[in-house]
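Let's practice the habit of predicting before peeking. Look at the sequence and jot down your guess about where helices and strands might fall. Then scroll down.
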Amino acid sequence: MKLKICITGRNPNIIDDVTEHLKDDRGYYPAKIPPRKDALFDMVMEQRPRVIIICMGDETEDGIGTYDVLNMAFRQGNCTIIVIAGEEDEKLFMKHSELEHVLFLSRPVSLFALYEKLAEIEELQKKETEENLGAFREHKKEGSILGFRRKHILVVDDDPEQLMMIRDQLREFYEVTLVKSGQAAIKAMAREIPDLVLLDYLMPGEDGPSFLRRMRTLGTFADIPVVFLTGMKEKQVVMQTIAELKPKGYIIKPSKKSEIVAKIIDVLG
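Done guessing? Here is the structure:
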């Protein structure tokens, strides 16, 4: 099975060159992703690549911070992040990036070194697949009761960093699904109805209250408990909305893990 590779960055010449070589020389078909937080977040959540290649060029301190969203891919496991950079870019990246683990590949790019690393990752992937094939053999006795089901929390927030932080806070105790808009939330709920929705109060387009009103008109989703996520400055407005729409309460952002879990326990038990 070929590696799933995504390539991003602000150096289009190197991106095109590396992409062409990977396709022609090794039969890989890397997906090109714009170096924006929302696009990188969607890539990690939807494509779950095994390798992410960042091609640096004309980077700024803030631009380098954009790639911090890729920590989520690293924490999910089995994702290698390769940064193609010159000497000065490498120093800039190391100074301003919060990524937990990356491999640097110097410019001009050594294709041999890149192919060797990809072959190593591909061999590891093959080994893991073979090991996992025989990892589980299930037997369920007729009439037996299945084990405890973890509660499912749907988090709706347009800020990828906020989504990742809440996911890290809750994943120990709950199944967590992350989406960035009300429309994406409807699709997620159609696949699996959550036990509770953590809903950002302020979002572009359809905000939290508007989405909750829409939920209430959809019979399947009308009774799902909702808790607003809100900043301190919207607190008074949120209180008015709570009186009108009667969600299960609100959580002030940024919030501690204990505060979020305590609120979920208060709602779900």
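How did you do? The chain has two domains: 5-131, 152-268.
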